[in-house]
TrEMBL record:
Family matches, as Pfam families: BBE
Lineage: Bacteria, Pseudomonadati, Pseudomonadota, Alphaproteobacteria, Hyphomicrobiales
InterPro entries associated with the record: BBE, FAD-bd_PCMH_sub2
Designated name of the protein: Berberine/berberine-like domain-containing protein
Domain Berberine/berberine-like: 35-79
Recorded GO MF terms: flavin adenine dinucleotide binding; oxidoreductase activity
Species assigned in the record: Bradyrhizobium icense
Length: 95
């Protein structure tokens, strides 16, 4: 399920946000756990990312550490490699 609260009028942002979050809270108990990774915002909450990947999270982090230890591929909902000193993109483009 994808919920989008959109209005071209910025004055409606508060009401749209309230309605969208309220709708999500009402239907979430009836939905599957997790999220669609490509629609997640980078809110800094690694727990949401861990919940989304579930039992695969640790395996994916290990693969990231093996094949991308410098975190070159980081313009996404980033899995940070284990023991990496690179936590952020190099610039706005990720390079």
């Amino acid at each position: 399920m994808v919920i989008a609260g959109i209005d071209p009028n910025p004055q409606n942002a508060g009401e749209i946000t309230r309605c969208t979050k309220g709708y999500w809270e009402a239907v979430h108990p009836y939905s599957a756990d997790g999220s669609y990774v490509n629609f997640m915002m980078d809110d800094g909450d690694d727990n949401r990312l861990k919940a989304t990947y579930g039992n695969n999270y640790d395996r994916l982090v290990a693969l990231k550490a093996k094949y991308d230890p410098t975190n070159f591929f980081c313009v996404n909902q980033n899995l940070k490699p284990l023991h990496s000193s690179v936590d952020a993109p190099r610039d706005a483009s990720g390079f």
